[in-house]
Please model this.
Amino acid sequence: MRLDGKARRRPAGTENADMPTGQVELYVTEAEVLGSAADLPLPVFGEQDYPEETRLRFRFLDLRRERLHRNIMLRGQVVSSLRRRMSGAGFNEFSTPILTASSPEGARDFLVPSRLHPGKFYALPQAPQQYKQLLMMAGFDRYFQIAPCFRDEDPRADRLPGEFYQLDLEMSFVTQEDVFETMEPVIRGVFEEFGGGRPVTQKFPRIPYAEALRKYGTDKPDLRNPVIMQDVSEQFRGSNFKVFARMLEAEKNQVWAIPAPGGGSRTFCDRMNSWAQSEGQPGLGYIFWRETDGKVEAAGPIANNIGPERTEAIRAQLDLKSGDAVFFAAGDPEKFHKFAGDARTRVGRELNLIDENRFELAWIVDFPMYEWNEDEKKVDFSHNPFSMPQGGLDALTSQDPLAIKAFQYDIACNGYELASGGIRNHKPEAMVKAFEIAGYGEETVVERFGGMYRAFQYGAPPHGGMAAGVDRIIMLLAGEQNLREVALFPMNQRAEDLLMGAPSDASNKQLRELHLRLNLPEK
Model:
């Protein structure tokens, strides 16, 4: 709508102090409809909860809503800030190719058929990993880009289907400590700039991977939650609580305690037990403490079985008091640590122990280089295949592969993995040996990573870097729980673009040009 007229002061008594233009009005002399509008399929004012399908199909209207508009504007501001900070730290921005070769980054590739080379395929990059390392070979010592990445993964609330963006960077002649010192101010600075005054960790703690699993049950701990798990196996070894005592006869088994300050009521303990059963567990054992006749006493079936001496030892170890409780997870920690971590999170939320109004960041370090693939009965890379093992080639040739740690690191923030990186394995013989342990022969390495393998023959500098998830950073800053609320035109949970109609059928002409024939599954 175009309106012509004269601006004038509002008559006395009609002013509106709640509006920026509340002191003036337009006396219209001519009006023109510039574009007619049909009835809206969803309101653009207010924050009514509409079905996701409607919101994504009419995303151009959804984006007019105040909260979503604010999130997208925040996104642009954060990206601009990241660019300024990286340039200020001496990095140069380069764009790496989108059509590339398939690479084992840990997820499925999106493949693009080649018309000029029938039967062959490009891959959309899961990350610019090899290209950024090649830039280090080429003498561009500090690289970064806001990189689009493509992974054919199932969507989650904290992971967009199809594509996402990351602050990707690499540095030459650096150690792990150099990367930390360079990037910590960048990440911290963005959270301080756009965090609305919420406290931000000033010096990121360094938490070894194994310690993170033992204390928090996850390698991306929410450090706003004060609950720290402890091993209390000795208090159950040889006890009358036979379920745990028998488990502990196996050397690898342990009993972990999950403290619950303020959770010392049978009602809360039974509620946690019911939750555990809903998660497919047989239950969640517990002890809680209460004061009787001026004396703190332990209660619950486990307390009755192990006796006052052992329950007092558990209470003292965990520094618990009357009105507190503790829950237990037992067995092989490799199998139960995730459940224990989920229980820790639930305790923190149920008892309001988590300070939601802050950003707690930490480096997670010392990731294992390899892990055992039970399905295929073989050793696999556990994180990034291009990382340098701690101890270098000597470790690869003399140590148990499952005991080797890598120069790999993550940044965790409020329960999310915010960034991941590593110091790279830049020596050809060490690179070949590392892949050989994971079942790749030298011929395979040369075939699949020929560019990097050749580059390493000509004096590769020690180098390393990382990638931080731009979408997740913005989601945390915006206080959202879903990445779709900070993305312009996201797909739905089935990886469909309802606005543009993707994925769509290819025409017979297109298939013929690509020398493709479809073999669709039966419906």
In short: The mean pLDDT is 93. The two ends are 50 Å apart (CA to CA).
